[in-house]
Amino acid sequence: MSKANHHKLDLGNLDLKRTYTFEEFKLANEQLKTRTLEIDGNPVDLFEFNKGKLLPMPQSPISMEAVVHEISRQLGNWNVYNHQNGIVTTSQGGFNFCISGQRTIRAPDISFISKNIYRSLDCQQQWTFKGQPFTPIFVVEVAIVREGCQEFNDLDQKFREIYFATSSSVDLGWLVDPMNKQIYIYRRRVSEVVYRTSHGWNNVNGGSILPEFTLEVQQIDDTISQESSESSSENGQIIDCPKCDETFSNDYKYMKHYENSHARRWRK
After folding, report:
1. pTM recorded for the entire structure
2. Name one GO biological process term (predicted).
């Protein structure tokens, strides 16, 4: 984009009702990396893109972001230790869902791309939003919602019409509400109809889409709890690795060893 066009896009005077070009969308997000923007009193650090419209994504308060990190941590551990070798992304990871042939850049709070999809990407797809569109197979949104409220309806529509669009690879989606203790599960039927079920605040497994993955909700609760927890002293306990002759003085050193020397060596 030319220097002249760079100065035409003034983030302080955006008109979110007008249509922007894809280049302007990219420029807006580039500028947000080095400056602060508030819309309706909410700080924004990312735009999504839908049919030429800029969709502001407000920054997350600490507890919401902690939940996102905990879910992505559990998913990331499963990805490594279960030898899935896919890619886990968080809310900066945008995808072109390409609805009705139009660019639709959306950034789920958490997503998972299978190794088959990722390894089929060319350099242009890996490092830009150009090339053939591709999407994850699993998405998560974390929000404080109640059924019937506007935010719930907006997110429900986002799952049904964007994430589970006919051209999308998404086959499983979770809407996680850590404050009201509710998880909504979205799946795609063979007939392409998307259906939603309420799961309550219980451990939820990934079924055939994420084989052997289970989200442990107690670990989410522990992460955002403000109550102190008892920390046990290791008292010089030595940890023996069951895969080799190495020994370790604490859990962290052992886990790093196991991941680097054993779990990742299975990567294929």
Report:
1. 0.84
2. double-strand break repair
Scored b (16 or more CB within 10 A) or e, 174-202 reads bbbbbeeebbbebbbeeeeebeeeebebe
Task: Catalogue the long-range contacts made by 161-167 (C-beta closer than 8 Å, 24 or more residues apart).
Answer: 161/99, 162/50, 162/97, 162/99, 162/104, 162/106, 163/97, 163/106, 163/108, 163/135, 163/139, 164/188, 164/194, 165/97, 165/99, 166/192, 167/97, 167/98, 167/99, 167/133, 167/135
Domain boundaries, the chain: 3-58, 62-224, 234-268
CATH of 234-268, one of 3.40.720, 1.25.40, 3.30.160, 3.30.70: 3.30.160
Would you tell me how many other CB atoms lie within 10 Å of the CB of residue 43? 13
| pLDDT by 10-residue block (mean), the chain, 268 residues | 54 89 91 87 89 89 95 97 94 88 91 96 92 95 89 94 93 96 93 91 97 97 85 69 90 88 76
Contact between 63 and 70 under an 8 Å Cβ cutoff? The reply is no
Sign of the dihedral defined by the CA atoms of residues 10, 15, 21, 23, in that order: positive
- pLDDT of 179 reads 94
What contacts 64, CB < 8 A, 6 or more positions away?
142, 143, 144, 178
Please name the CATH architecture into which domain 62-224 falls: Alpha-Beta Complex (3.90)
Can you give the pLDDT at residue 229? 67
Q: Are 173 and 186 in contact (CB under 8 A)?
A: yes
pLDDT digits (tens, 9 = 90+) for 80-138: 999 999 999 998 889 999 888 888 999 999 999 999 999 999 999 999 888 899 999 99
